[in-house]
Amino acid sequence: MENDHHQHHRHELNGDSTKPHAPKKPRLSLSSSFSSITEFEIRSEFSHHDPSIARINNGSFGCCPRSVTAAQMEWQTRFLAQPDAFYFNELKKGILHSRTIIKDLINADHVDEVSIVDNATTAAAIILQQIAWGFAGGKFRPGDAVLMLHYAYGSVKKSIEAYVTRAGGHVIEVPLPFPVNSEEEIISEFKKALERGKANGRKIRLAVIDHVTSMPCVVIPVKELVKICREEGVEQVFIDAAHGIGCTKVDMKEIGADYYASNLHKWFFCPPSIALLYCRKSPEILDLHHPVVSHEYGNGLAIESAWIGTRDYSPQLVVPSVVEFVNRFEGGIEGIKERNHEQVVKMGEMLANAWGTKLGCPPEMCASMIMIGLPTCLGISCEEDTMNLRTHLREQFGVEVPIYFRAPKNGETVSITGYARISHQVYNKEEDYIKFRNAVKQLVSDGFTCTLLSQ
């Protein structure tokens, strides 16, 4: 009998339900005439944030408004009230609804192309696991390659080491300049890395390309790089877009990658943790599996991912509530992205001017985050200095912001070695950035150097 239930829910999850009342397609944006949220309501939605902290680091963990956490608690309570009924009657139907919304958000062809997983790291494991099996099963030759950007996220680099290197694959890194002045610099380095990768008849089985790099942050011209991969015979392309949805433009038809992963808890206001994994329909999709094996194994990645054992699935179920929240803003999520970009550039330029430094990239190459050079007199000379300074800013000045160390290049005598990455989200105020500006100016005035924190 239980198998019959599972079969019924598999059909429903794939979008094959014959029920006459399918969920309404949500509006993903609203015109300004329907915008209704006020500044007071925004403050109320995020009143759980610590008021003593200038929280200009949305990029790390994201944020979740009170209306969405309330909806999450309702889902959790419904599960706890009657878990069996919830499992058989509500869970998979709710996840299908969320997947359908996500399909429309990213302009995918079909809901079957969209799976929901915990985070972008899980998505990377799913794709890289398939590559490892290709080596283990003899489909790939030892020495065939996976290409990644030098600024790939740390956990993705480790995943490539765990899945690809151990299986006998070769890893090619694309060195990227920073500061970066143009997309052409990135495209040029990418092309050169592809040539190196194909040397001696080696086949590049997968390219892992960030959409928005984390540290240092810059928007990568993914559409152009995917096109180059197609022209150069790269077998598959995976876009790691941890900062994609709600941060920059995401359109599967335009980008054209085989796989695309994006967190929804960073810039799309979901509670942690939830991410989408888009897999373009192809024969390779049949060999994709969630690394946590449950009784849905073999029924397709989307169904496998929708049940990996008893756990809290509420982050995956609140996507409709998030859409309701973003549609209270002028222009919906598109309007939020546009305003976040404008404000983060404005605040970044304000800080750079105040400190006599510069931005890490042109404004058009950032989305909702931007890098700003810190005064050289702070003496940032290693990764340890960045962590010590970040802690000092948090504990002594009430500012939460990540710091990046850029090692001087050969021949450089005077250069900026420390950069701050600021984010802008709807809850941020100009005072947050002024607080950061004044904290750094105070450190400079006091003759502070990072060596004082390592003694």
TrEMBL record:
Pfam families: Aminotran_5. Residues 1-11 have a biased composition (Basic residues). It comes from the Eukaryota. Keywords: Pyridoxal phosphate. Residues 90-282 form the Aminotransferase class V domain. The keyword Ribonucleoprotein does not apply. Residues 1-30 are annotated as: Disordered. This is Aminotransferase class V domain-containing protein.
